[in-house]
Amino acid sequence: QLQLVESGGGEVNTGGSLALSCTPSGFTLDYYGVAWFRQAPGKEREGVSCIRIRDGKTYSSDSVKGRFIISRDNAKKTVYLQMNNLKPDDTAVYYCAAELPSLDTVQELCTRLSPADFGLWGQGTQVTVPS
Hints:
Layout: E1 3-8, E2 10-11, E3 18-25, E4 33-39, E5 46-52, E6 57-60, E7 68-72, E8 79-83, E9 92-99, H1 106-112, E10 120-121, E11 125-128
Parallel strand pairs: 2-11
Antiparallel strand pairs: 1-3, 3-8, 4-5, 4-9, 5-6, 7-8, 9-10, 9-11
């Protein structure tokens, strides 16, 4: 069974940092696009960052650019999201998602950062930044 297992998250004060990780189970990420999405209460799921596993090229939404860093380890086994300078607006459930595209390129998936493009999802992890 193919799964994405997330860890990390928690509660941190404004300006603090947290790190999330996403590990595949039952498959390898070699040619996948892997993204982090988040969903706050009452809001739509929003794309945060994406990485092309093959070469590590990254994409980020304007709302987190300069604060969040997506990366993968050299063995391509885990994807990380380092979140710095956290704000109350960053409070949400964060999801890891992966897709091995057939028609689109990973670059197209990562540029769009649309939840509809990703078929494999983690269980989600809560990040809370109290106001």
